[in-house]
Automatic annotation (TrEMBL):
The keyword Isomerase applies. It comes from Cryomyces minteri. The keyword Glycoprotein does not apply. It catalyses: S-ubiquitinyl-[E2 ubiquitin-conjugating enzyme]-L-cysteine + [acceptor protein]-L-lysine = [E2 ubiquitin-conjugating enzyme]-L-cysteine + N(6)-ubiquitinyl-[acceptor protein]-L-lysine. One of its GO terms (molecular function) is ubiquitin protein ligase activity. Keywords: Isomerase, Repeat, Rotamase, TPR repeat, Transferase, Ubl conjugation pathway. It comes from the Eukaryota. This is E3 ubiquitin-protein ligase CHIP. GO terms for cellular component: cytoplasm. Residues 209-282 form the U-box domain. GO terms for biological process: cellular response to misfolded protein; positive regulation of proteolysis; proteasome-mediated ubiquitin-dependent protein catabolic process; protein polyubiquitination; protein quality control for misfolded or incompletely synthesized proteins. InterPro entries: CHIP_RING-Ubox, TPR-like_helical_dom_sf, TPR_rpt, Ubox_domain, Znf_RING/FYVE/PHD. Its EC number is 2.3.2.27, 5.2.1.8.
């Protein structure tokens, strides 16, 4: 049975590469029916279902794969993507961090570190955004209700795009481009709404956001003493030194790296200090 499953997996891979995600999902499903003990079959199907935006199926596949193989960064990565899409930022952040911790242990070094680190940051921002919404509810129910309404409107438009894709009225590439346009338009509407409220209530309506350049790509916390590697990446000194004790590589590029290669990033350190000083009332909660 295993060899037939491998053949079906190969068919699924070919269909996936051609952009036929529904066909790939069907092939992986047939392979799983033949041999359900291969965790890679579930991660492959999860990836196809991600493309199809079948979030519940992604969750199910990832959990099956993890049950078969605990050290499974791809499954945790896809799981985080689906959890984030389903508006579960706390769970998504936990899954993304697990994926990140696991990929750093892969030998030889994996090339997947950077997209996973970006997903961690995206999940952390989503979690922060959820907290900000709760803060909005605390200072004014109207803004919170408007934010929720705009979010529901955006999700409804995304659903319409998915429905058009399911009906064959547009291709996968066109649907993905349209989905991105809808999400960007929704983001701009949300920002405009918040700006209006901020002008009306400047004391409580300020936008609280930590910029990407301030965040360490190891701990994903706010930096205080950034150092630069020879590849030009900056990290918090203490977390990078701890990382180098376990693995003498740049966490993002995986190129060889030692403590002697580190240099203080004085300009970034000053920028971090300024930001922390100007936002010390809330940035500790990040």
């Amino acid at each position: 049975m295993a060899h037939i499953a491998d053949q079906l997996k190969a068919e699924g891979n070919a269909l996936f590469k051609s952009g036929d995600y529904s066909g790939a999902e069907a092939a992986y499903t047939a392979a799983i029916a033949r041999y359900a003990q291969n965790p890679l079959l579930f991660t492959n199907r999860a990836f196809a279902r991600l493309k199809l935006r079948a979030w519940d199926g992604v969750l199910d596949d990832c959990l099956h794969s993890i049950n078969l193989l605990a050290d499974n960064f791809k499954a945790y990565y896809y799981l985080a993507e689906a959890q984030l899409a389903l508006n579960h930022p706390h769970e998504a952040l936990s899954s993304a961090l697990t994926a990140y911790e696991q990929v750093l242990r892969v030998t030889p070094p994996s090339a997947n570190v950077h997209p996973i680190s970006q997903l961690v940051l995206k999940c952390k921002k989503a979690k922060w955004e959820a907290r900000e919404r709760e803060r909005a509810r605390g200072r004014g129910q109207l803004l919170a209700e408007l934010e929720d309404a705009l979010d529901m409107l955006t999700q409804g438009e995304v659903g319409q795009v998915q429905a058009a894709l399911d009906r064959g009225e547009m291709g996968a590439v066109e649907a993905e481009e349209r989905r991105k346009e809808v999400l960007e338009a929704g983001r701009k509407k949300l920002e405009e709404c918040r700006s209006v409220f901020a002008i009306a209530d400047p004391e409580h309506g300020e936008r609280r956001e930590v910029p990407d350049w301030l965040v360490d790509n190891i701990s994903f916390e706010v930096m205080h003493d950034p150092v630069m590697t020879k590849t030009g990446h900056s990290y918090e000194r203490s977390t990078l030194i701890e990382h180098l004790k376990r693995s003498p590589t740049d966490p993002l590029t995986r190129e060889p790296l030692t403590v002697n290669d580190l240099r203080p990033n004085l300009a970034l350190k000053q920028a971090c200090a300024d930001f922390l000083e100007n936002n010390k009332g809330w940035v500790v909660d990040w």
